[in-house]
Amino acid sequence: xxxxxxxxxxxxxxxxxxxxxxxxxxxxxxxxxxxxxxxxxxxxxxxxxxxxxxxxxxxxxxxxxxxxxxxxxxxxxxxxxxxxxxxxxxxxxxxxxxxxxxxxxxxxxxxxxxxxxxxxxxxxxxxxxxxxxxxxxxxxxxxxxxxxxxxxxxxxxxxxxxxxxxxxxxxxxxxxxxxxxxxxxxxxxxxxxxxxxxxxxxxxxxxxxxxxxxxxxxxxxxxxxxxxxxxxxxxxxxxxxxxxxxxxxxxxxxxxxxxxxxxxxxxxxxxxxxxxxxxxxxxxxxxxxxxxxxxxxxxxxxxxxxxxxxxxxxxxx
Length: 317
Description:
alpha/beta, Four Helix Bundle (Hemerythrin (Met), subunit A), Rossmann fold, eight-stranded mixed beta sheet, elongated
């Protein structure tokens, strides 16, 4: 294991500690309490999964598969069921075909649009990604397209300074599409590699917000026909099912290509990753595992499941 992958594994383990304590801690209690695998046992497992925000439909599906597998393998010891749960969670995430968690980076300019409601950590996410790409040697430009939220432009400007990248901005209350247009032209003129575009998180109503997003996308596509190359929806993991509802709404209204799940380290409901994958079929591309500038990590399904069950897996080594 390289130093970087070891650091990532530790970050997942540490970042998912709240979920693990609640989730695998409660599962361990159930495993220890029951002498046999019966209906009461499965009912309690169901409750723990729902409590971790794995999602109702996903839990029902998972428990049915667990029952089938237990019967098939003739498992009578509850402790052996934990291994099957780990297997099934990996199966659910990888699905029939594994969703691509990589970012669609182009040879020329890559345009990434960020959407999401206010307060989910959208601006911070953009700043951290700007830092990440700059560290990788890429030339990055930021577009302050959230012109409606007080302080959003200033906040993004602070991040541009911190990351050492250029920012294109207009006055507060200006036309977001005009900002994005100027940013596209500037990024092209500077031969930039990546343009990260902030957008409004809330307007008077959902229709206005979605119309605004469509307008922004049209402006980008006029200049770069296959752009935006990614539309990343930023969600706050600590809001649990509310984040799931937001994902559903944004998916209906715009072409979301991936999810950035912030504050995963601050919640005991980290199962939301599984629910989003299984019920909405959108890949999680980045997860926030801490507040530091380097704590936004590319999503890795294996590391994630390890983070959920690290104590059990480590104990078996």
